[in-house]
Amino acid sequence: MMVEVENTPMLIRTETFERSEVGLPDEFFVDQDLARERFLLKKPTCFIVIGKTACGKTTLAKKIASEWKCKYINPLNLFQNYMDENAALGKFLQNQLISGKEVPGETALALLKGAIESPEAHHYGYVLDGLPTYEGLEEIMNMLKTTHLHPDYVINITIPDADLRPRLESHRFDPEEGLVYNKFYMEDPPVVPPDPVAKVPPKPLKRGPEDGEVEEAEEEGEPEDEEVGEGDENLPSHPDFPRLDKKTLERLLVRPEDAPEEIERQFTMYRTVVRQELKEYMRSFPPSNVISVDGNSSPSDMYLSVMTQLRALPVRPAVPPHQFFPPTDEEEVPEDVEYEELIQTLATKRMPTEHARWQISPWQSLCPVQLYNGILENGKAQFSVGFLGQIFLLSSYEAFEDFIRNPRPFLIAPQPVIPMRIALVGHVTAGASSVARLVSERYNASYIDLDDLLREELTAMRTAFLDKVREETETKTIQTISEQKKRELDEIKTNTYTDDATAALTNTVVNVLAENTLEQMLKATSPQDNPPEDDETEAPDSAEVPVWRPFPPPAKTELIIPSRLLEPVTKDHPEVKKAVSRALSYAEIQPLILDAELYANKITEELAKLEQANMNIPKSKRRPISWVIDGLPPNVVVWEKIVEKSAEVRQALTTKRTTLESSRKAEAEAKRRAEEAMEEDEEGQHEKEPDPILEAARAAAELEKNKPIPIDPLPTFVFQLKDGLPDYALLMHRLYLRGYGPLKDVPRLVKQDNLVPAMEPMTDSQAAPTADDTTEAPPDLPASNVTFDPMPAPGPEVDYVLNWIRQFEAEWRKTTEFLGKTTSAYGYPAMFSDLDIGGKSYDDLYKEISVAIQKPLQRPAKESSQDELDEKADTEAEAFAEGGLEDYKPPGEEEGAEEEAEEEEEEAKEEAEEGEEEEEEMQPEEDPSKGPTRQLGRTSYFCPVALKEFQIMKPGDPEVVAEYLGKAYYFGTEEDRAKFLLEPTKYVDAGIQRPIKLPPLRICLVGPTGSGRSLHGRQLATRLNLIHISFPQLLQDIMLAKLHRNVGAQYADDKPIPLRVMPDLEEAVAKALAARENPDGEEAEPEPAGNAEPEDLPEIPLNAHEQAIRSHLQDDEELPRESLDLILKKFWTTEPYMSSGIILEGFPRNGEDVTYMQESNLFPDLCIAFMAEAEDIMPRLLPPRLVKWKIKQARIEANKKIEIEWKKAKRMKLYEARKKTNPY
């Protein structure tokens, strides 16, 4: 919002404005949901009509019940209704009345109390008629005082006995019609003007058989040749008492109870017994709740008097549910339509008021009656109703009847509640049993542990399986060891025989070789072959020639067999025991599945027990059964059996509903045939014959009604607890801790320095483990980068366990595929989901389950657009123009009033259109997103995401819209809408819809320097109790803290100019004289101690942010976004600015700053621009600047003067010194 302020003087005031938030109670804020809840909890209005016999109670009571839409209760009508139903109680009442006996007082009182406390009376209230009775009046009055649906208003019809006596004496009974008429139907009554309220004369009135009251009779019309009774037909008569024809008058009879003595007896009993009791009863009511009516008035006048007094009281009629597609309508019920399409059709069908669409109820597509009974079943279009502005879809005719009869118990909090009927599945140590027990405890649900219920069967199966494994392992191991021993024994024998043969062969070979060698040696030494070379050589002695002696044969090796090879192998053999122990450890982890039929039967049996126990609880305290099943295997065969049991329940339900529907059709057909027969048999000569088809249909329906529908064994929700890590690290860690199967003997994986204790996942560890401390995972197992301690070392045992885990997961995937194609017995799809157990406690898993269970009731937000909103508005207007809920008249009612109402509406519409055409030319074009047809959320046209996250009132884009709970929300950007669609409850509070808490006031003051920004900003901050922030001064403060001076051209004259201090004059003269005596030396002119200009300060290092601010102040360069974030964002996001509010002066300065604020969600609530002309600003800014300039120039001139005088004095001193040294 931009406000321009002219540059005018303003009186500065110092008063402060304290803002305080008024805390209002919750009762002050009533939204639609809270209003509905209060209405449903409010007691319905109940009436009791009392008075003497034949004073008009029944006629008045029926008119009030019809107008007030409440239940009409009359004791004799109750008897007739029960007799018409032909039930056991009806037959008993019929026998009592036919035999002339009185109905027992206890029975009559019980029937009356049952009618008063019926479901219809709980919602619509009632009008009690037929009192007083002369028997049991005291008990009836005590019952009315103690029942929680006690009467709220008493309608007392008073009439003197003298006026009532002629009316009673004139009673005549029509035996053919069973009606009673009084004198007003037979004589010309006094001329009474017609009731001005009634536009159409009422139908003929009939007398009620119970106390002579008049009641409406249905007539199609009077015959043209009909003759009137006594009196002239042209004489005026009261519209409540149409004349009787001659035939009716001829067949009228006088009843014994209408004799004068019987009438006197009734009057006496009333005065002595009833009057005092009624007076005592009426004293218990406040005077305003007792309505007295004159019995001498006509029925229409009495009714008008009562309704006039009721309209002045704080009571309203009951609100009946509205059926969108009644059977009598010709409109076809949409079938096989999507839920969203059906809701769009019903939203504008006979709307309650203009632009008041029927909204989706919190039950959405679920039937509220079935959900109250713990069953999830989608409703149908033919049973759709509208109630309290919401759409409800009922699932069957029985549910529809229950809802129409009394919708309150199905809608009162804590409804809607999803029943806890779930099953948890998980591998060993996944925690399924612990979570199941926790859920059952907190939801007060029954815990069904199939492992415990089937423990005997599982134990027997496990024992048999282990015995089989043991036997097979023993047999196989014994055989293996025996074969190994045989092989070893054969090897020993073979080796022994081989050694002996080798030794003998070796001995033979050695002997042969030795003999051959000796022979060769002898030949070599023979004289024939080798004569001596010298004669002196002596010949060898022939006796010394060597002779070969063979080696003796080797001895045979003794066959030595170890004793262990000779021992028999039994099951006690160590190797056999070890093999059996190892096999059993592997067999322990193998899941055993019983017959699938056992699981399904056991679940059905347990649910039947729960249902029976629940039926033993009183109905008022009975609640739907909730249960949690644990121990179900993942095998698809088991779930198929459970689905088969669910199909049996579906078949029983279908049979029951079909039978009841056939009974209703038979009733309708029998009624139609009876009406046709009555039309054909006008004289009533033929007796009514029983209808065998109807009797059979009634008997079948009665039988089906008494048959209870078993509980559907298929869980509504199925959760699998799984380890989401690809290598199942958490499950393996838990299994190893437990010593699960073969893992108990596996060595522990060496702990690494970077590992953490159990249940704490490690990700992206910094330390690099060495090769000795790590073990690679199997090649087919992906690494998860999550490690627990302790963990088993890799090996075949680990691979075996992982293989069973993978098989469990694969089997569950098959089951989920099967469940995805199935529905419950009531047609609701089975829902299943996986819960990752990694890093979560049981409470975390419980919360996830609770959230998942409520998903069917979550109402999602949906994306919309301005065109869709406009189309909805046009649809609403067209639908309401065709007729709203108030214009709807059920078929069969009079059409005259409807036609007149339509004519009046058309005239009013034409006049309104003419007036609108005249005003359209004068009115400016409006924003299409704004108007009375928009159902906006709490944030109106502002973005709820920006309000929640940034505490700003950011206007929404008319083209970026979303709808939630029937309300439209506008958003600043597409990203904001995406956040809202993802989690609408984060930005829209549930419960009492209090007005939104507006963020603190944020005001921007802009304008040229000298326009009064700072002055007015400080004044506004003082008055509004805001924090004043000057953006230019804020930048200077940053520089002042770093450079210790202000930066900018406007501060150039603020630099201090020191007073010039000249050097010592004598010293300067001495130096000048010395230089004169020594001309070769260089003498520099002494510099003054002070300068005419200010000295430059040393450069101080600045960071990028500070340098950007300095450049902005000196050279007017744009500040980067990073610097603006550091400077400005804290005023919107941190305390104390978020709570107190701010006045930001001097920002934004240009269009780029405005764009930055918009993109950064820094929205002010008000922007004040100070407008001033140059001729107005110059007198403000120039004088102080001119003063500073004059002061600076005066200081410069003073320094120059000091320098001139010093130099003049120096010259005089030098002149005097030279004159002394050289006087000539």
From TrEMBL:
GO molecular function: ATP binding; nucleobase-containing compound kinase activity
Basic and acidic residues composition bias: residue spans: 658-676
Pfam families linked: ADK (PF00406)
A biological-process GO annotation: nucleobase-containing compound metabolic process
Residue ranges the record marks as coiled coil: none
Biased composition range(s): Pro residues: 191-203
Top-level taxon of origin: Eukaryota
Region called Disordered, residue ranges: 191-246, 524-549, 656-691, 881-937, 1074-1097
UniProt keywords, alphabetically: Kinase, Nucleotide-binding, Transferase
UniProt-listed InterPro entries: Adenylat/UMP-CMP_kin, P-loop_NTPase
Composition bias, Acidic residues: 211-233, 531-541, 893-926
PANTHER family hit by this protein: NUCLEOTIDE KINASE
Official protein name in the record: Adenylate kinase 9
